[in-house]
Amino acid sequence: MVSDRPSAEIRREFPIEHPEPQFELADILRLYGDAYRAEYNPSFEQGRALHAIETCRTSALGAHIDKCDHCEHREISYNSCRNRHCPKCRASQRSAWVDVRELELLPIQYFHIVFTLPAELNRLAQYHPSTVYALLMRAAAETLQTFARNRWGGDLGIVMVLHTWGQTLQLHPHVHCIVTGGALKRDGSAP
Questions:
Q1: Which residues does 122 contact at the CB level (< 8 Å), separation at least 6?
Q2: C-alpha span between 188 and 191 (Å, rounded)
Q3: pLDDT band, very low/low/confident/very high, at 18 (cuts 50, 70, 90)
Q4: Domain coordinates in residue numbering, the chain
Q5: Residue 2 above 70 pLDDT?
Q6: How far is CA 100 from CA 17, 91, 105, 154, in A?
Q7: Sign of CA dihedral 109, 110, 111, 112
Q8: pLDDT of 129 higher than 80
Q9: DSSP character string of 58-114
Q10: Residues ≥6 apart with Cβ < 8 Å to 148
Q11: Is the confidence at residue 14, as pLDDT, over 50?
């Protein structure tokens, strides 16, 4: 069937259903967390995050009672860990952040660029994290802006997010940058 309607409307009519995952990260950590800790010896901060994820929304963190104002129905809800690394707690905040960023997008091309701290400096980052991470962020921004000024004579739009761990939960400081596909000159024009 051919339709002259935009594809975005068609997608809204036929949403893709994502089945609930059989296991959550917390389930995996409860099963294999002790073995992981024994083999990889995570840092204090990583251990705290692992514990928070394992205990999130379980009786270990206590509970509260939600009561309906109209019918007096009550439900017991387990408390969340509120750890920024927990997928249950931070998924909605992350989604809201992305939604706000999408509203800020201009109708132009964007690029994803990653700057990684050399592994030789990881130990320094463990002992002076705020200084090293600030320098990494500044170096990434200055590198991108210097390139834009030399190439196009203008400034880039940049959104930067610092990640301190890799997917294996090992120290891997890196900065994700979303960069505009062009620059804005000082006089307000585009090159």
A1: 171, 172, 173
A2: 10
A3: low
A4: 21-89, 105-185
A5: no
A6: 24, 14, 9, 25
A7: negative
A8: yes
A9: SGGG-EEEEE-TTT--EEEEEPP---TT-HHHHHHHHHHHHHHHHHH--SS-EEEEE
A10: 154, 155, 156, 183
A11: no
User: pLDDT tens digit string along 58-114?
Assistant: 999 998 888 888 888 898 888 988 888 888 887 777 788 888 888 888 888 999 999
Query: Could you tell me the sign of the dihedral formed by the alpha carbons of 74, 78, 79, 85, in that order?
Result: negative
CB contact at 8 A, 43 and 126: yes
Backbone angles phi and psi of 153, in degrees to 5: 70, 30
Which H or E element spans position 55? helix 44-55
Residue type at 144 in one-letter notation: L
Residue 76 makes CB contacts below 8 A (sequence gap 6+) with 63, 64, 65, 66
